[in-house]
Amino acid sequence: MQLEFHELICFLDYEVTVFDRSQYDENGYDPAADDVQAASADHNKIFRASYGNEIHYQRLALESREAWISEDEDRRLSSGGTNYQQLFVNSGMLRIQPSDHLATLEKETLDSMQRDGLRDTQFVESNSTDCERAEKLGWKEKLLNFQIPDYPDKSYEAVLDSLAGFVRCSNACAYYREKADAKGIKFNLGSEHGAVESLLEEASSIEPNKKKITGLKTKDGVIHKADTVVVAAGSFSTQILHDLSYHLESSAGSLATFKINEGDTELWEKYSPERFPVMTWKSTPRDNSGKDTGSIYVLPRTPEGLVKIGYRGIKWTNFHPAPQDVPFAQDGQWSTPLPLEKCSVLPEPALHAVSQFVSIFMPEFENTPFYSTKLCWYTDSLDNSFVIDYVPTYAENSVFVCTGGSGHGAKFLPILGQHAADILENGDESSSFMRPFWRWRPDAPRKNGLEEGPGGPRDIGHI
Ligand SMILES: Cc1cc2nc3c(=O)[nH]c(=O)nc-3n(C[C@H](O)[C@H](O)[C@H](O)COP(=O)(O)OP(=O)(O)OC[C@H]3O[C@@H](n4cnc5c(N)ncnc54)[C@H](O)[C@@H]3O)c2cc1C
Fold first, then answer.
1. 48-78 per-position pLDDT tens digit
2. Could you name the CATH architecture of 59-75+88-165+250-319+359-379?
3. CA 234 to ligand 1 centroid distance, Å
4. Is pLDDT of 251 > 60?
5. pLDDT confidence of 2, banded at 50, 70, 90?
6. How many C-beta neighbours within 10 Å does residue 358 have?
7. Where is the FAD dependent oxidoreductase domain (predicted)?
8. Ligand 1 close to Cβ of residue 46 (< 6 A)
9. Contacts of 445 by beta carbon, 8 Å cutoff, 6+ apart
10. pTM of full prediction above 0.90
11. Which CATH number fits domain 2-45+168-248+382-462: 2.140.10.10, 3.40.50.2000, 3.60.20.10, 3.50.50.60?
């Protein structure tokens, strides 16, 4: 309950209290802290504006990019230029193709960039004009060239995206939390008075056949009344508001890190954001049904020397019996995050994909043990879009949701709340161009993997 709330509360002139079960004011969103389980609490996440033909997300990402840059500039000025770390790092992103030619999605992205006058920011490895431009603009060093194993005279096709990079996610959350705090927003944090146990309901006198939400109860038993409750609990949202069970599914991405010692100057330099881009690769092309099972990525090292690799080709589900009153379940089950203490072991197929990636693209680490491994929980929606709207099954606009996103929300942190606030205040009159994509959509088919259900190859209990 952090990302969306932060901006939401800054934007509106209301009395707002944020509840979160993690003691963020003390742990600083440290991803390794014992009480932290949130997708946002992480060293870094990819920033990209490349969205195939979904040009609305391209434009949203570019809006966010400007906001990151402007926020960083404010931070730089207020720190006097010292002791300051950028939240957005424009390291570039090299999207390595699974073969020696461009995949359809990549061509669509190039077309969308062209449409918005941004084609010059993209450099295609095999395109000599692009390479010359990359050289002139200082990006050539990041157009890394890798041979395709077993085909020594062929190399992977790749696109270097100079708009992209990464955001320092935990630092950004801590920064925005402090900003909100300074504006007088109340934070109830911690496993007792910050943890939401249940939402409070009563019959509506205005819409007779419906209930309305009147507030929430925290784990310490205290009742908190509210005119509107906003549920923005990432992959835990379904457990707080069961009406989300059709719309969302929790699934896990697999993360592994290596640690470089600063004394190892060669590696320290090579994997620095100044020299190394974010890299993505697909170990296998999309299958005939369009399913992507090979997607994997690496980010440049952090200031602490961590190099993070993420495998998202198979997002693991954790099916188990759903509570009786859940409106949607599959064979009586639903997928929610595993407890934190069970999230440090990666499934074998993820380990295999990471090793394959490392052996081709990061050979220096081939026999190095991981520094850490972790399952990190996505909030998958029916179509990869967020769900940001009032919940129509409840009366009087008493509950609003701000969730979903299927793995691409971090990059929007500085602006997502403004769009959400606009929708909260204005509903269908909202000026947000994202309104049509984020509405409550009970008629959308259950796709995007959410149709698979328990017992399938992604179900972590069955592999
Ligand atoms: C593996 C992985 C990789 C990703 N990579 C990228 C990327 O490269 N780029 C990008 O832009 N995005 C990425 N994302 C997506 C991005 O991280 C998310 O969209 C975003 O962080 C979601 O933020 P959130 O606040 O909605 O949820 P979360 O960050 O999950 O926060 C949920 C919060 O709810 C709190 N909570 C849960 N239950 C309760 C309760 N009962 N009471 C009180 N509080 C509760 C938790 O403590 C937590 O703070 C990735 C996600 C994953 C999982």
1. 999 999 999 999 999 999 999 999 999 999 9
2. 2-Layer Sandwich (3.30)
3. 5
4. yes
5. very low
6. 21
7. 35-422
8. yes
9. 382, 451
10. yes
11. 3.50.50.60
